[in-house]
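User: Please predict structures.

Assistant: First:
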Amino acid sequence: MTELRQFYRAPSTKKIELVHHGESLSGILENISFNGALLHLRRTTALPGGTGCLLRIHLDADPDLRPPLQIWSEVVHVNDKLLGVKFVDHDVDGSGCIALLMELMREEPDQDQDDVDRIRGYLADYCNTP
């Protein structure tokens, strides 16, 4: 099967909240890329594709030390408790996605050097740097 993804997906176990019309769904960030994320929610949701929501990624256990990263998102697919979102209406540099991706990459203790080099290549291409 051909890989259609444009960007690397960094695995994660960060806590998340997905907020839609005042309702907050909690769960775990399964993975993140420059374009979107895969979330594992604690309970099944009926949010249809195209639904706009705010994704909050808790970068630190203590929100006073570092507040959650907030990214406006749109649901692209739902399968039981798994939910895929794409990022919308954000400036990638301003949102902190690149910094988060680098942080998540460093958290992987068994990260293969080839994977690290590949991720650096994606980042360089994405940021148009040599």
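Second:
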Amino acid sequence: MPVAVDALIKELLATGSMNEETTADLNRWQAEFTDGTLHADDAAYIEALHAKLTGAPLPEVEAAAPAEPARIDGLTIEDWRDRALRAESELAALKDSVSAASA
């Protein structure tokens, strides 16, 4: 089970090695964590900072479910590609038939 962000903040502050700005940020993030308003990006930064300074491993990131392919007007990129290839093939066939008829 991953360590709570507030525990990481407390460990970082306890080192006494943070500069004024970082200490102020950590204290602000601690308050935000307590209020339930800590942004996920800030939590990730705290975890990374803690890992860098202590040598602790970063928490494992859960594998995200594969995203559904993006769709444009209901078609995936692959669908649009197939459609374009068919249209190019039909155009070439029409050009050939027009050339043959006029010859």
